[in-house]
Amino acid sequence: MDTRVAVAKKALEKNGYLDLEVDPLMDLFAEIERLKREKNAIVLAHYYQDADIQDVADYLGDSLGLSQQAAGTDADIIVFAGVHFMAETAKILCPEKKVLLPDLRAGCSLADSAPADAFKKFKAQYPDHIVISYINCTAEIKALSDIICTSSNAEKIIESLPPEQKIIFAPDKNLGAYLRKKTGRDMVLWNGSCMVHEIFSLEKLTRLKVRHPEAKVIAHPECEEAVLRVADYVGSTTGLLKFAMKDDAPAYIVVTETGILHQMQKNCPEKTFIPAPPDNSCACNDCPHMKLNTLEKLYLCMEYETPEIIMDEQLRLAAKRPIDRMLEISARYGL
Ligand code: SF4
């Protein structure tokens, strides 16, 4: 093996990715396409990835669509352009496939807000409750859950349970509060949140609405309740995209991670999409974890087939059970 590559592989644990120089003249789009063909690989990308990565993906979607794609693919290698829990979910569903993540450090503040030991103690306080966990959690939390959900199917999953069934919802307290209000169900919430969706400023959003009276506000349910209250539409990332495509407003203030604006603009070139302002000095609301992936790192992980997601088999099987329940309920409702 080339010494440069051997050194980069050795430093993988520290860096989280293969720190190798890529020829700046290389056509990365063409190279990634070649590697897909040669290795029977598929690139699955989340809507919050950079535009370049979205454009090179075979499938683009939110957590529900991505896990359905992972479960159904016949590729030998799944390259997951997203964050760690998403690639881990793909590995849980497809143990026989090689699952690659361009940068292993691409974590998630929401998943980190639910450590397994603390959650186990919390769960023990409510023995007659069923645990529904949002897919944005670690494999350990999935293994402690009864059903997994995404923002696309959470409402249907809750409604599929008998009305008297008590529920623990984890890890996102904002999504949980939104669902509790929508479904009227008895739900105990774990106190976790996403750093990107919690940062939107209601004050700045209100000022932006005054400046753009023609624009509708569309928001992700991971946002705080005060922000959701002023939204014209609340939905999952895919839900927001579909709403913008079928609705007739000329402009939208989009209250979620900015990556989705690329697809909105591509699908509705005649409409204006304005990112909602965060409550910090920076004007952007990018997810720093999602944005750790780059086209260069994507190419390198495909070329050298590392970093790879490796899982303990017992944990994988325990985490798979509630995901299977989610996929089965989603299929039943045609989601
Ligand atoms: S946007 Fe929030 S929930 Fe999504 S990966 Fe980033 S930190 Fe996690």
Automatic annotation (TrEMBL):
Residues annotated for iminosuccinate binding in this entry: H46, S63, Y134, I135, N136, S151, H220, P221, E222, T237
Pfam families linked to this entry: NadA
Binding-site positions, [4Fe-4S] cluster: C108, C194, C287
Pathways involved: Cofactor biosynthesis; NAD(+) biosynthesis; quinolinate from iminoaspartate: step 1/1
Cofactor: [4Fe-4S] cluster
Its EC number(s): 2.5.1.72
Subcellular location: Cytoplasm
UniProt keyword Calcium, yes or no: no
Catalytic reaction list: iminosuccinate + dihydroxyacetone phosphate = quinolinate + phosphate + 2 H2O + H(+)
Keywords, sorted A to Z: 4Fe-4S, Cytoplasm, Iron, Iron-sulfur, Metal-binding, Pyridine nucleotide biosynthesis, Transferase
Co-factor remark: Binds 1 [4Fe-4S] cluster per subunit.
KW Magnesium (keyword) present: no
Similarity section: Belongs to the quinolinate synthase family. Type 2 subfamily.
NCBIfam families associated with the record: nadA, PRK09375.1-2, PRK09375.1-4
PANTHER family on file: QUINOLINATE SYNTHASE, CHLOROPLASTIC (PTHR30573:SF0), QUINOLINATE SYNTHETASE A (PTHR30573)
Functional note: Catalyzes the condensation of iminoaspartate with dihydroxyacetone phosphate to form quinolinate.
Name the record gives this protein: Quinolinate synthase
